[in-house]
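Figure S7 source data.
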Amino acid sequence: MATKALALMAATLAIAPAYSQTARVVDDNSLRNAAKNGSEWTTYGFTQGETRYSPLNQINASNVSRLGLAWSYEIGRGGGNQEATPLFFNGTIYSITNWSIVYAVDARTGKEKWHWDPEVNQDKTRPYICCGVVQRGIALYQNLVIAPIIDGRLVALDISTGHPVWESRISYSQDGYTVTMAPRIAKGKVIIGVAGSELPIRGFFDAYDARTGQRAWRFYTVPGDPSKPYENPALKKAAETWSGDFWKLGGGGSLWDSISYDPEADLIYVGTGNGGPWPEPLRHSKGKDNLYVASILAVKPDTGELKWYYQPVPGDSWDFDSVQQLLLADITIKGQPRKVLMQANKDGFYYVIDRVTGQFISGEPFVKVTWARGLDERTGRPFINPEAHYGDETIQIMPGPGGGHNWSPMSFNPATGLVYIPSSLSSSSVFAIDENYEWKPGRSNIGVRRGPPPKDGIGLAPPPAATLPPPPAIGPEVAAGSPTGALIAWDPATQKQSWQAPGGGSIGGGTVTTAGNLVIQVIPDGRLVAYSADKGEKLLDVKTGLAGGMGPPITYELDGKQYIAVAGGQGIVVGRNVEPGAPPPQAGPNTIFPKLMVFVLDGRPIGQ
Ligand code: CA
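Tokens for the predicted calcium ion complex:
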């Protein structure tokens, strides 16, 4: 018997996992129940359904004005916005900053426990990064911190030491891919996708075994070379919605924001980015839908098999990445309880979809929209204004590529039934096909006419002036002189605005809502603002002193006290057009290096 026991023990040891089972860890069970655990914030979006609603109420509408600083931590040298949502587990804050540097901070002292620098080759990677040297988050699982690296690696670090445990390769930046989104854990797998649809890339997302880093499956979001076998039946179907040799151009459909997961439905949800190049005619696909660009996909976590899809923007020509937060909630619509997936899309529509079947429920403009005049009530297919399919002449379209809503996290409060959307009310851009367009490998291939590139290489070149009259508008009117950024409290059951407050916008900062009848909003200019969740009364408006590069807020409880944490500050930002090897710009008097700031009731005065 002893021999048998020993043999069994040896066999167990031989298949022992890479991570220990002894310490308290984030696992499938705790992730599934994250909504009930207000004291920690263990996953991107707070829950697998990205609700960003905390059941904590120590900080509430009656006392939030007493918020002060508990401590702050200097994150590092920066190089872009702090777009990551920090995580809080077991007394420690974990997050990721520019150039994919991962850090862990003791939440009792504010002292760094460890940080890990993947040493990205910045000069070689920078030219392939579309829109800033940013990361949106990490995942905690078992005793690992799982971090995407902007140059295409996926790394698992030991949660207590920050030492690498395994490393995998998602993509290579020289192929036009970067990785900026936060991973999602589902059934022991790490789900992650690639960004880059402004470059000629074929979008995809992957699942990796969280224990080993081995890739389990890949789902390409657009079809490839039709002379080769299709990777799966969904791509065979997708190929019918393209024409010509589109596949030589890449196609687009990248991922860079949301992945949510419903363990009950056994489905992972992702949103896909724009078609590439931007104008549909340049993709050799005029009048075709181009699946699965600008789409919401539901796939099986075990296999990556497509269960359903909904394409908000067939034949996208406007950079309407449909990657925004896919928020899962159970709400009552017309007296019926519905399991829904919701998205405030870049394209200006708020979509409500049955997340089990993929059935379209409703969609209404939450900001001003001119690309479409409405949606088919039954299918959700947009009625696209014909003039929005631009040609050689310039026309103004709303929203623009910044979107009515972008990556700034919204949040859903089940007590008020409202979702709080950081929005740009009157986003617009001017479009015309670039008559000098030439396909270039490894370079930006948007194919629309633009002005000269900005001298500092930061941001997109300005569009020319519009010559054609704009298409007719739908959606809420915007009073002349109104600020473009606003927080919209939206009722998803009735598809109507409940209240609105000026400030913020679709990019930068974000929200969290709580059982304390609060919405906490971080404004891109560095302010921390609080509203009552039900009525939108402003209860707090303070400057953090960070003045830019703001990330979304989180909240957690430690030793009986509720805290709110937010990162911000850019450090020194280097543009894309900088000569490789050129000396980096020096810090100026206005340079603000990134900080993590943690707030508590009756803390020290905040900011300057
Ligand atoms: Ca895009």
